[in-house]
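Please check this:
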Amino acid sequence: MKCLIFILVLLAGFINAPPVIAEDLTVSRAVLEDKTGTLSIDDVTEREFLPTGSKLSKGFTTSVHWLRLQVRAPTKGSEVVLFIRQPFLNEIRLYESVASDPPSWKSRVTGNYYPYEERDRNQQTLSFVVNVTAPETTFYLRLKTRGASLLSVEALTPEEAERSDHQLDLLAVFFVTAMLFLLLWAINSYWLDRQLVVALFAIHQAVYTLYGLAITGYLAPWLPSGFPQLADLSTTVLYCAVNFTTLLFCRELFKPYQPAPLMLRGLNLFLLAFPLQLAAMLLGYTPFAVILNALLLRFTWWYFVIMTFTLRKEQLPSRRMLQIFFVAITLFFTIFWFVSSTSTNMDNKLLGRQVLVVNGILIGGIFAMILNSRSRRLLLEAQQSALESEAKSEFLALVSHEIRTPLNALVGFSALARKTTDPAQKDEYHAILEQSSRSLMELVNGILDMSKIEAGRMEFETVPFNLRQLLDNLEEQYQPLANQKTLKFQLSITDNVPVWVLGDSIRLRQILANLLSNAIKFTNNGEVSCRVSVPGQTDDGGPSLVRFEVKDTGIGIPDDKRDLLFQPFQQLDPTISRKFGGTGLGLAIARNLLAMMEGSLTLTSCEQVGSCFVVELPLPETEALPETQNTVTALPAIGTVLVVEDNEFNRRLLGDILTSWSQQVVLAMDGHQALQFMEQQHFDLVLLDIRMPGIDGIEVSQRIRQREIEGAQTPVTIIAITADIDITTRKLCLAAGINAVLAKPVIPDQLARTIAEHCEGTMAVPPTAELQLNTRTCHDLRNNAERSRQYRKLLMADINEELKCLQAAMEREARDELGQAAHTLKGLCGHLADQEPAELAGWLQLNAPSAPNERLRLVIEQLQSRLSQENNS
């Protein structure tokens, strides 16, 4: 911008330089119009003619004029230079008053006479050197023009003429050089970028440069001398081509900004004018082409201004900057056109060839600035793309490592589990397989979550949930991990934190689990804490913000890498993934999830001291649910279940799970077979895959519902099981009559709960096996089978004792003792692989002070029933 301002100031200085003034020479002139071109020198010897003023012609019709010049003799010498400034004259002849002289004209350079056909065409100003010996001499100029022209004729001494001509030549050289520099810049930019818009700018600049050379006279010497009209014709063609190439360039320039389609179609219509202009010139109607181009020039620039205000997409340079550029150029042109068409006495040097060249420099300079900004944007995007590509390559390497690690365990221990005959060792292998599969599932879920966030397809639900129970579960999950590293783990909840809140418990658990996992992972000594509080009511009276502060005394985060921490596929250092594991997605997902939930995630950290992640999330308080959803494990009464799944292993898995629950199962491998089975017998439940060859699950459900309507049948419960559970698929499933949607991989507990929610008549789920110790406890016991059996026996004895204390406290209605017994029982049950008893005990601990007696007794009975199955086994 500074360079452009400097150029404009410099140009203004050249244009407004003091003109050369002839002090002692006087020219009196008069003009006689001759539209037929037949008036000769003999006809103007008398002083009877029609003066028309300094404007020679009105409009764009070709006309011929005679100008009589009466020049007084100079005080020194006899040579006088008749200096004419006029860019739009097509033919000029000079005649002296002596009738006997042959019709000819004089060159300003040599003073020699030449025939008209050989006139000097390469001069931007026409100067005739004449000898004035008498006190006053008369000369005649024959002028031919097609445009409305202002004429300026000065009588100068040779020295004054040389200075004036040198000044104008210097201006022309400067202007044309500037245009050539812009052309070279455009060619170089295209050579580097190979962008279409840059190529069109280079073409536009080449055409405007040629036009500048033509109107300043530098192009004429390069044209064939045998065609005296070629210079005039080439100037007209270039004049029309400038507007055509401007339209081409601006159309391509506006495309990335997504202008209104109607405005683009308007530009295409304007482009058709150039072929019409060429046809008119070839047919001899050059004035028509000039008139049409003049009208287009005046209209298209305002059209560009309007178009900049219809751009719908932001780019670099910004839409606001484009609007300023085009408004400035258009106002400049409008003022120039208005002044040039209305002024009759202004000094013609302001309205000549130089102003047209200045227009070209101004347009080219602004277009170059726009393209330069665009090139910087493309360069930044390329650099960003390179960084993202590098990050994704590193991410793929990390993912490959993180995927292969659990896969290696799955492949290896599954082979060992098939070969071993030791039950204890087989159970140990199965526990490792389960843990590896869950790790693999968590990794895949993280990648899918990030893709959903980037695509704007992440789903959230707002349901009541027990916040304190969620926090207790997290404590039970991460306390053992902290103990393994001899870290102190502390969870503190202030009294004003509500128990039941509205929100998305799954996403909140995902966020906090990620923060706690990272805190433990990157802390080698010291402590990890999670403090939950409610800082106060929001300013607008909305729901209170719940603040979660996760602190650690780990490695800390450098100040210059904190922003990098929240970018996807990024880690602070490549060695971190090798040392600690992970893909670098967790914090990016957490921050994006919180932003979508109208929350925030902030960080304060000191390197080698520790970090503190603060989550603030609006969670409105709500009433407790009448039923505890997490403790429901029931199935419909024994019936017939149709499993529709095209994958053989998934089909067998679902069949075996349902068979172990004493359900009668029929397996169908595709939609056609499922519909055939539905016609042959009645089913109480249909488990349906969505994406299948032939008839997909959506169509199968629609046909089932249609058949039920036509036959007035009782609707069967349909549960979809699919790997694609985005919001669009879920809506399609519900619209097709499907009752519920489950995500793959299938977890038996989730399947049982979903069936219990949507099927009538329930029965307790038969235990698939005796309760086992969880993986962490087995690991603490060094995976020793005998020690595990002994510990399990002692654990169950302690659990039975606490159950008795729990029951006794309930009979006495001693709520404090009940809560204490539930707390102890929750800790004991936390060592079991089945988390249902611990969840029931946790509910009792939280609700012992306020829950109705009937509700407490029901939960205690459920807990005793679940644990009595273990004792019986």
The chain has six domains: 23-156, 175-384, 385-452, 461-610, 634-764, 775-872. Residues 353-419 form the longest helix (67 residues). The radius of gyration is 46 Å.
